[in-house]
Design brief:
alpha/beta, eight-stranded mixed sheet, 11 helices, 43% helix, globular
Length: 245
Amino acid sequence: MLSIIIPAHDEAPVIGATLDAVAVATRALGARVDVIVVDDASTDATAAIARARGARVVQVDVRHIAAARNAGAAAARGDRMLFVDADTLVNRQAIEAAMQALDAGAVGGGTAVRFMRPLPLYIRLLESASIVLFRMFGVTPGCFIFCTRAAFEAAGGFDERLFVAEDVAFGRALATQGRVAILRAAVTTSARKMHTYSMGEKVRFTLRFLASPKRVSRTRDALHFWYGPRRHAPAGQPPETKPDA
């Protein structure tokens, strides 16, 4: 069985589309799919939307992505696990490639990630470069990480000392247990942080993180991008709905 674990905080505008994409992508697996939404202190209809689409909902109140993922893993029934972000659209090709990688002996892995359009040119260039670099260095982007339960437990799960970059740390821990596969199949994730934060906010955060990555990654207060009030599409702007312009 494959358990799909989706951590979510105030994701009512996007969680329905994410779960619909999961349902279509895993249709061939039938009853061998266990979908869990970890509702982390949401103040909106995230949990109700998830239940209406047949997902199991695990309630936590930690506002901590690593802890939410670990809570979902603790509730999972499958011997294989896939962690998907609440604003990410998976597809059949990525699911099948992940299962084939595990069948071939990988302990886990990640996949290429593309942002929903429209996007400015510099973000498209950054996207292409990150796909190449992640493959070269075995980086597992948090929006799509898969693994066996045995490897997850042996790696110690997600490091709850970290409030960000816990996905990269988990990928490195997985690599100590065996082969990590970075798939060529791509999933599509939201670019809302690109649209809803100003250039000044992004530059200030980047400089602060580069100045002290260890300290910044271990405190929620310095990570407004991830732990501030959720920002979705600005008023009057249509929501992102597709991977290509």
